[in-house]
Amino acid sequence: MKSFCNQLAGFLAMILFVPVVMADTYRYMHVTIDTPWLIFIFLLVAVLMPFILMAILYWRNAIRRNAEDDARGES
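Now predict its structure.
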């Protein structure tokens, strides 16, 4: 019974006080003029990273294939 009372008290506290805490989160969000630029740079890196990785892997495999072709030509 004690465990149930503790769970009920926790549930009631969550229902009663969570909206107050959620409304208070705007105080901690500091949006400045730099925020859109930071988002833009983050998304730019996230979008371009696969293309950069693809170019590096293509270049690496092209060098490896040239080395294999050279080795076959010498044999």
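Residues 2-74 form one domain.
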